[in-house]
Amino acid sequence: MASLKEIRAKVASIKSTQKITRAMQMVAASKMRRAQERMQLGRPYSDNMRRVVAHLVKASPEYKHPYLVPRAVRRVGYVVVTSDRGLAGGLNINLFKKLMEHVKQQNSQSVETRFVVLGQKGVSFFKTFGGTVSAALTGYGDNPSFEDLSAPVQTMLEDYNQGEIDEIYLVYNQFINAMTQRPLVQQLVPIADTDFQDNDLQSRSYSWDYIYEPSPQELLDILMQRYVEAIVHQGVVENIASEQSARMVAMKAATDNAGNLIKDLQLVYNKLRQAAITREISEIVGGAAAVS
Fold this sequence. Notes:
Layout: H1 4-59, E1 75-81, H2 91-108, E2 112-118, H3 120-129, E3 132-137, H4 146-161, E4 167-177, E5 180-189, H5 199-203, H6 216-291
Helix pairs in contact: 1-6, 4-6
């Protein structure tokens, strides 16, 4: 059984760890609120971008952009969004499980796969798992810009444009609320027609249309890539919010567990101390009786 000194040392060590986990919980809660604000600010941009692209698609029905045309699937690409740091519970593990299920389905149909990875945890995972990683980005921070994410996404889009990939999926953790994050595999390209269903456009009764300069086709070529980048950026922002909320919950659980350990050790310490006092009293009484 541990001595009183050893138990005191363990309690001191756990209290020190508890202070760290409590501080990390508070930092994660603060970052989560800011990440939620950025996530909510980014949604109107994505929605308006979708409306503009939907309007252009309807304005030139004779032109089918390559991102709108399905292909026979032989090779599939994944843009996998993970965190750079750990201590976020099962956030990344659940995402990898969801990804592996989807990859197994593709492999069962003799479909090849390749990956673009965002986040250090994803890079570490694929070093163990294997697979063809076309590009990777780490250290993108808590507020990445479109320019930060452009290069790896552009690598995957170029492969699609050259016919080396037939479908692209975005894999990230969708933020539901502070307690719930859902791993999601979302088809990025080709874009489904349902993504451009706009009730506002369908409900308009007037017949006039915008005059585009340059032509709708040229605008579509530019905006389609921006639209895909906007979806990826929104997915990254949601993954950051999910990471911070998962870390906050994990650190709270760690802090509570540390408190329970301290209580248990304190109870053992008190029992040992009481036993030691009782033994000393017995020795004193026994010595006094022997002298008398």
